[in-house]
Write a structure and sequence with these properties.
By secondary structure, this protein is mainly alpha-helical. The chain has one helix spanning 38-51. The model has no long low-confidence stretch (mean pLDDT 76).
């Protein structure tokens, strides 16, 4: 799955352990968390697909 975002857009990616995320282009910041609450991740996942 490939997604394109406009420049300077802030966004979050929630994924499973071991997944690979590739980013092309410059970034101002990036952050990788060791733990994410599953319910929070599930909420954003379903909200994204219900809205788009």
């Amino acid at each position: 799955m490939w997604l394109s975002f406009p420049p300077r857009l802030k966004f979050a990616v929630f994924t499973w352990y071991g997944a690979t995320i590739e980013m092309d282009g410059p970034t101002e910041t990036d952050y990788t968390a060791d733990e994410v609450l599953f319910l929070l991740g599930a909420f954003f996942f379903f909200a994204f697909f219900l809205l788009f």
